[in-house]
């Protein structure tokens, strides 16, 4: 449950000791929760912004935590972490991926040296998922 007691389908990622959730709805609300004490069993997430993306399937921070990749079925949108966690919604870069024609594309990860990893769940029971690695120039 997020702040306000509403339940959402959401995607979580971690930056430092903080947890972040991006909702999978038409607003892509961004929520943040500070690291909980080990004795506490509940986290409270507070809304810090929204991205205006529909149907977010995954989100992940880069290994150096400077960038966050947010995936939808049609694109990967990369944000600068410092701006995103302060309520910013302006993408650093947008990478169209619809042309890859993945069946049920879901996962995203940013690796070192501009590597972007995409994973799909596959299609029907007989079709395996895919794993795609792309090298991207993320300099601006």
Mean of all residue-level pLDDT scores: 82
Q: Please identify the oligomeric state.
A: single chain
Strand order of the largest sheet: 1-2-3-4
Counting helices, strands and paired strands, the structural category is mainly beta
Biggest β-sheet strands, sense, barrel? 4 strands, antiparallel
Rg calc: 15 Å
Q: What sequence of helices (H) and strands (E) makes up the elements?
A: EEEEEEEHEEEE
Our estimate of the beta-strand percent is 35-45%
* Helix count from the secondary structure assignment: 1
Tell me the number of strands: 11
Low-confidence stretches: 1-8
Shape: globular
Helix content bin:
under 10%
End-to-end separation: 37 Å
Please give a structural write-up.
- Helices cover 3% and strands 41% of the residues.
- It is globular and about 45 Å long.
- The N and C termini lie far apart (37 Å).
- With 140 residues, it is mainly beta.
- The strands form three sheets. Strands 1-2-3-4 form a four-stranded antiparallel beta sheet, with no helix packed on it. A four-stranded antiparallel beta sheet has the order 5-6-7-8.
């Amino acid at each position: 449950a997020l702040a306000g007691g509403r339940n959402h389908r959401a995607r979580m990622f971690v930056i430092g000791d903080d947890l972040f959730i991006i909702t999978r709805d038409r607003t892509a609300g961004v929520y943040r929760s500070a690291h909980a004490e080990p004795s506490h069993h509940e986290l409270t997430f507070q809304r810090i912004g929204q991205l205006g993306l529909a149907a977010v399937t995954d989100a992940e921070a880069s290994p150096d935590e400077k960038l966050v990749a947010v995936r939808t079925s049609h694109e990967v949108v990369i944000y600068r972490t410092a701006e995103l966690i302060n309520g910013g919604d302006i993408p650093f870069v947008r990478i169209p991926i619809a042309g890859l024609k993945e069946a049920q594309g879901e996962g995203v990860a940013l690796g070192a040296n501009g590597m972007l990893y995409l994973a799909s769940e596959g299609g029907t029971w007989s079709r395996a998922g895919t794993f795609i690695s792309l090298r991207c120039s993320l300099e601006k």
